[in-house]
Each structure stands twice: as structure tokens, then as C-alpha cells.
Amino acid sequence: MKLGFLVLMTPYTYQNMDTALSLVESALDKGHQCQVYLYMDGVISASGLIKPGNDRSIPERIQGLIERDVKFIPCGVCCNYRGLSKQNTAENIKQSGLAALGRMVSEYDRVITLGA
Amino acid sequence: MSKKVAIVVSKPPYGTAFMGEGFRAAMGLPAVGLETNVILEGDAVFALIKDADPKSSLNMDSLADAFSAFEDFGFNLYVHGPSVRARNLNCGELIACQPLEDYEFKTMLRDQDIILRF
What we know:
The complex is a heterodimer.
Chain A: E1 2-7, H1 16-29, E2 33-38, H2 58-66, E3 71-74, H3 76-81, H4 98-107, E4 110-114
Parallel strand pairs in A: 1-2, 1-4, 2-3
Chain B: E1 4-9, H1 18-28, E2 35-40, H2 54-58, H3 63-67, H4 70-73, E3 76-80, H5 81-86, E4 99-100, H6 102-110, E5 114-117
Parallel strand pairs in B: 1-2, 1-5, 2-3, 3-4
């Protein structure tokens, strides 16, 4: 099954991104295919400048999932609103438009919204 | 056959970005061939009040003006009827009003392929 995740909230302030990552990891373990679209404050998770110190590393989990062929797609307009430039976006993550959300909704079997 | 997607907005229109971003998603999804149904429930129904003037009071663009072009954007717009009545509003006070009663809301959600919440 193809599972899409729509994450709306910022990491560390809210648990939504952690929840999405855990669900994606579990789904991959069971043989499903996953994609994550980052919308609104969710795009902050795509920043390459996150330094969580000794706290859990959401960027490392994201990169680990990218290595397992999971796409993380931040909404480009949302990035502009929040000052997240393409240059400061984490490696292997490309900003995209709402058409990418549309394709995920259209092509994936389920889409789970986290954060509203 | 195209997929059906519901965008259900429950948040009030101007205190957070949820309504505006829900509207932006509603503009984008019909462009990729999705049958898009927007349902405003709870405090979200305030977005459709005809005479609201958020520009002068909040320096924010009117979402009622934005939603008034919903047909041009290619999505369907509904309100949750009980939410409208619970706020002492009626359809005449809204820029568009296709109310869904509870059972219709339930049926609508059941018939969708995907539900996005804002």
C-alpha cells in the first residue's frame, strides 16, 4: 500500500513529525511505500540548519528514511513564508509546489494528516 | 474516475493560518483532476460571513472574498448546518451556503477517498 503523510506542524514544539516518522518507519518495515509532504510550519523539518544538541535528532531520522527511498517534499510557498531558502534546505530534500501534494493525494492509497 | 478528496476545516478564519492554507490546498487540488469538496465546520463557518472586514481591522485579506470564487477554482463548498445555527448565523449572512446536516456530513466523509484536515 502507498501511504502519504501530510505534516502541518513544526518539529520539537509538537510531536506530529515524530509521530509521522515512527509511522513511516513501521510502514516501511511492513513493506509499504511512503511519502511525506510538509505543509505550513511542517516545512521547518526540512531545514538543514536544525541543531538539536543532545536531544533526539529529527533530521537524522529523516535522512535515514530518505536512504530508504522515502520522499520528503516541503511546500515551496510555505518555505518562502518562513525564510527557508533552497540553499538552507536539508540535503536530498527538494522544495515543491502544491501539485506535488495533489499527486500524492491522487496516487496514494491513504493520506494521513498530522497536526490539525 | 477521479478521486474524491474532502478538505475539512474546523479552525476559525483569522487566528491561525489553517483556514488560509486549507483554502490554498483547495485551489491546487482540482488542478490535478481531483474532485475537491471543502467543508467548513465549527468556527470555520465564520470565514463566509458577508460583511466581515479583516483588512481594516487585522490587515488580513478577506477569506470570504477568496471563497466567493470557489466555483472558478473548481471545488465544491459546503458548510456544516448545525455549526452555522449554533453560532446564531443563517445562510443569508454567508457569501455561499450549501449546508450539510450531520447525516449528510457523515455520508459525505464516508464517500471520499481522502480526507485532509485543517
